[in-house]
Amino acid sequence: MSSVTQRIGEIKQPKGGYIKPSQFESKILNDNETLHETENIHASVVEMAVDYLTRLVMCASVNDAFRISLWGAECATNWIPNAIDIGHNLAENIKGIDDQSIINACKLVTFDVWYRNTGAALMAFNNSNSTNPKIPDIYTIKNIQIMVQRGINFFKKYGPIVKDGFEFNEKAFTSTVGAGDGDFLTVDTMWDFKVSKTKPTSKHTLQLLMYWIMGQHSGEKEFKNITNLGIFNPRLNTVYTLPISKIARETIKTVEKEVIGY
Known about the structure:
Elements: E1 2-3, H1 4-10, E2 25-28, H2 43-58, H3 62-65, H4 67-75, H5 83-92, H6 99-108, H7 112-116, H8 118-128, H9 138-158, E3 163-164, E4 177-179, E5 184-185, E6 189-193, H10 202-218, E7 228-233, E8 238-243, H11 249-260
Helix pairs in contact: 1-10, 2-6, 2-9, 4-5, 5-6, 10-11
């Protein structure tokens, strides 16, 4: 049984992808801010920090916004005995998007992998033999601050947020796909935050489609009114949207059966 992202890595999509990224309409949001060209920590850490800090500032408590990181700290205790204390101490000192809060957030999100992929976490832990993740430099901190502010501005225009960090009930899962969690729901759109330096890929668009299909199978009411898929990239400050009505029904059925396994 795989997670959504693991399943996407296991399959071969048709040429161009089940949903071609070019099908999404794009819109650049201008804020006259320029990001520094380099950052000194891994892109995945930056992405999670931007995502979770945006949730914190917009609508969530620290424990809710960083709940997967805190779950990861619990999973890490067999190898890092004081992991829970480390995680909660970091969480208690995240107050917003000041410099120290961002440093703490970047440290805390490194626990995510212990929840999502313990094998990868163990490999990284054994290779580094350290529980002290790299500290973001001043340029990385400033970039994160700008991107979180872009997230705030984005939701002022495209919100309000109906649900953040959405998860699925057991009805959504199959013997093929047994885990997955998304970023944000607004009234009619399912959103994914991506902080890559490039435009969305077919892996990103398939991930969103899988989440939408799983939401429909879950039977939960918050997914019933979702009629659009959307990606927001605060690094590029660009919004990408696609009405579900423009996705071929045959494509949806194929992903349901052959990718997810309903």
